[in-house]
Design brief:
23% of the residues are buried. The radius of gyration is 18 Å and the shape is globular. The chain is 50% helix and 13% strand. The chain has 211 residues and is of the alpha/beta class. Helix 3 packs antiparallel against helix 4 (61-71), helix 4 runs parallel beside helix 5 (90-99) and helix 6 (112-120) crosses helix 8 (157-171). It is built from ten helices and seven strands. A hairpin with a 5-residue loop joins strand 5 and strand 6. The strands form two sheets. It has a five-stranded parallel sheet with strand order 2-3-1-4-7, sandwiched between helices. Strands 5-6 form a two-stranded antiparallel sheet.
């Protein structure tokens, strides 16, 4: 199966992507990972992308699309994949349709107020774990490894609102784009626990006999 994964910052895409990958043995392709791999390998398109990034500019849609197009030709992507972080806008979605036959778009829908609370209340650990402040009480130590927790500098109300505004203006229109194609699967209970959300995802996949 070939999937596009949508969801605003804080919707839990990373958690669900890991579970989908484990259950369905699906290749998880993150746009960020593709950029880093090309830059590390010193490919021509990686050098081009790096030139924009080093200048503090956004990588143009055309360059991003070429990087994704190349990644989908790799041997490990032949039997299917899940795209995370691409497409981010209608132009990228239309370009994707020219070189890939997407089976469905999985959208994790969460109320904006809950998203704000999730992100602004998030505390991270260098071991990779993250926790919401409501789970920690007065402690700011990782329950798993005992290291001090920290908050990302951009996990503040002003920056988070700007990130969400960007998502809803540029990426959210893709929900209608894939709905019109009959490929949208929207999990509207993103406010539930990760287990609850994954149960619904599996039910939706089973309806379509995706495996």
């Amino acid at each position: 199966m070939k999937i596009v994964l949508l969801g605003a910052p804080g919707a839990g895409k990373g958690t669900q992507a890991s579970r989908i990958t484990a259950k369905y043995n699906t290749l998880h392709i993150s746009t960020g990972d593709i950029f880093r791999a090309n830059i590390k390998a010193g490919t021509e398109i990686g050098k081009l992308a790096k030139s924009y990034m080093d200048a503090g500019k956004l990588v143009p849609d055309e360059v991003t699309c070429e990087i994704v197009k190349d990644r989908l030709t790799w041997e490990d992507a032949r039997d299917g994949y899940m795209l995370d972080g691409f497409p981010r806008n209608l132009f990228q979605a239309e370009e994707l349709d020219k070189f890939a036959d997407i089976d469905l778009c999985l959208n994790i829908d969460v109320d904006i107020d809950l998203l704000m609370d999730r992100i602004c209340g998030r505390w991270m650990c260098t071991c990779g774990e993250s926790y919401h402040v409501s789970m920690l009480g007065d402690s700011r130590v990782c329950p798993k490894c005992g290291k001090p927790l920290y908050q990302r500098a951009d996990d503040n109300p002003e920056t988070v609102k700007a990130r969400l505004d960007t998502y809803f203006s540029q990426t959210a229109p893709l929900v209608d784009y894939y709905r019109e194609q009959g490929k949208l699967v929207s999990v509207t209970s993103g406010a539930g626990s990760p287990d609850d959300v994954f149960v619904q995802i599996v039910k939706e996949f089973d309806k379509r006999d995706l495996r």
